[in-house]
Design the sequence.
């Protein structure tokens, strides 16, 4: 149940990011100066935390999406859905920890 809810939330979050990304990229055609100002705001620690949230959302959404595909199209999928959820959680943690370190290093550069 919770993986279903989290899958929907991460999907909506990724969609919102893509919408904002298209808008801010289109801003370069309207006003390069305004584009540069927007890009400067993206270099703050708060946006760095949002970037980490985006990486987490994409990672979970992708891994859980593979699990959902396996449940739907593999004849043994429903039988192993709980095991696959635990595998998704472990792989997610194995991927998110190094990502957090890399993003943390980049955010630390802001305070120097």
Sequence:
């Amino acid at each position: 149940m919770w993986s279903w809810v989290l899958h929907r939330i991460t999907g909506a979050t990724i969609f919102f990011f893509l919408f904002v990304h298209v808008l801010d990229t289109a801003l370069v055609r309207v006003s390069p100066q305004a584009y540069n100002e927007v890009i400067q705001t993206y270099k703050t620690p708060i946006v760095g935390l949002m970037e980490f949230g985006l990486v987490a959302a994409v990672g979970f959404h992708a891994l859980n999406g593979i699990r959902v595909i396996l449940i739907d199209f593999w004849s043994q999928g429903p039988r192993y859905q709980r095991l696959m959820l635990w595998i998704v959680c472990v792989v997610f943690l194995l991927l998110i920890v190094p990502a957090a370190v890399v993003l943390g290093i980049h955010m630390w550069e802001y305070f120097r």
About this structure: The chain has a mean pLDDT of 93.
